Amino acid sequence: MEKEELLRKIIELESEKWEVGSDPRHRDTLRDTLCVNVSEEVLRRTQEEASATMATESKQEDNNVGERLVKKQECEGCCNAYARILQHLERRAEAEQRLREEELALRREELSLQRERAALERERQEAERRERERRFEMEREERQVLLEILREKMIK
């Protein structure tokens, strides 16, 4: 705004300078040339301002892109941390699952051993029972033999 006002004042001063003591035809061409020069100057300055504005905007966009990259990197950092946490939890869950499976396998072995012990105990008890029955039978036969011997002696 200030530049445009200064340019207008310059144009006015220049036009006044040329108006004094020059012929009318020459004045008009000089005024036209001056107007063209001023218009070109105004156009050049507005283009410079526009390019400066565009440069500022591109810098802001670059800053925005940079900020987005930083945010993206922060987000990726969070995502990476989250992924590492998930991997750790998955490994932990897998390890816990393996432990549960091992515990179940140990329990199965323990139950199998208990069944074998119970079967062996039953066999031992059965063997003891048969041994008692065999002894009882032998003692009974022994008594029978003794009774027969006694009867024979009594009969004689």
Please explain how this structure is put together:
There is one protein chain. The chain is mainly α and 156 residues long. It has one domain. Helix content is 96%, strand content 0%. It contains 2 helices and no strands. Helix 1 runs antiparallel to helix 2. Residues 85-144 form a coiled coil. Keywords: Coiled coil.
Radius of gyration: 60 Å
Low-confidence stretches: none
Element order: H for helix, E for strand: HH
Query: Alpha-carbon distance between the termini?
Result: 164 Å
Number of strands: 0
Give the overall shape: rod-shaped
Main sheet makeup: none
Overall mean pLDDT stands at 80
Oligomeric description of these chains: single chain
**Given the helix and strand composition, which structural class is it?**
mainly alpha
Name the beta content range.
Answer: under 5%
Percent helix, as a range, is: over 70%
What is the domain total for the residues? 1
Count of alpha and pi helical runs: 2
Keywords: Coiled coil
Coiled coil: 85-144
